[in-house]
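Lab notebook page, bench 4
Experiment: in silico fold of construct C2
Operator: M.H.
Input chain length: 416 residues
Purpose: comparison with the prior construct
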Amino acid sequence: MAVCAVLTASCSSVPASSTEPAASEESIAPAPTIEIVPAQGGQKVRPDKRIVVTASGGALQEVNVTSADGKSVIEGRFSKDNSRWVSTETLRPSTRYTVTASAEGQGGTAQATSEFRTLTPARQLKVADVTPAVKGEKVGVGAPIIVTFNQPVANKAAVERALKVEAEKPVEGAWRWVADNQVIYRTAKFWPAHQKVTLNADLTGVRAAKDMYGVEDTTTVIRIGARQISTVDTRSKTMIVKRDGKVVQKMLISAGKATTREYTTTSGIHLTMEKANPVRMISPGRKKGDPEYYDVLVNHAVRISNSGEYVHAKDNVWAQGRQNVSHGCINARPDQAKWFYEQSQRGDVVIIKGTDRELEWNNGWGFWQLSFEEWKKGSALKDDERSTTSPDEDSSQNQQNQQEQTDQEPVEAPAA
């Protein structure tokens, strides 16, 4: 809806006097004047430039900005004295707009109109993918929001400002650029469970690089499910799974045998990334005939890193709880691995302790390996431009946030 204002002027009357001289034509105040930028007939106007309407000799009464097709109405704000109006949002590229304004002063009223057209960008910026965001999917409390664009972004700050995260249970978070076409949102603490998070990418008209502008807005809804956090101790060879603060499974496991670095399970805060049944696993960089070569199918595999680590089924029950014999994965009894597979959500937290190999922050979704202060350094914005996720206007659950956080697990990587 366009922001407009209609002001009613009032004045006190002065008692008539027969001795008061009549006003001369020279003493009558002139009608106000209105200036609109962009001016009438403008072509190739940059969509990220603001519309400015200024009145002299009076106050603006109303300003309306609409597109020729009627699909876009631009909002704006008046100055305190109503002498100036400035648009507060970007314009659509390749679109004709009409600005109408009226003003009133002691000399009467005035009206002005400006029609102009925004430029057609040489390159269009769009959201190519948001992960994790499969329709109907619920994700874990550690889940990131990964946004991939169809073009490399040069003006990262402008694009980042256009990405707005709204949560039913607000929590502090920040974006981090990991590539010119990809940015990732991570919270300071794990998401409060059982809520809806909405990502609005208001890219239309945003100047992302030279001759490149956003051409469409997108909205993505992400649903946070149960708070499932698993803790693996490679020394005691156990795995404990908690859901919403309660222990729901205890498992004996076998971790990496640690004869080489590649066969050492990584310690740190992992996130479940994907799952499949079965998964073919082939030893990286090794050929047939090598004693360490393997090519096997494993059942109920849940990936927790990009370096080949999974929680999966293995029938070597003799080793589970007694000896670490794997090539780096977490092996569990087939029936318990199947249970874990079925219960896992992308973004669930798996904390592994007890080895001398740390998970790298950019190994899969190892983002929680960085402190939040370090994470924020990858943002294109300054601290005062970042804020807690805003609440979803339809939510009545915001007050539950603090209670959820009382069960917060550590967010720093545990000691090896």
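Observations: The first helix runs from residue 156 to 161. The CA atoms of residues 63 and 339 lie 62 Å apart.
Next step: discuss at group meeting.
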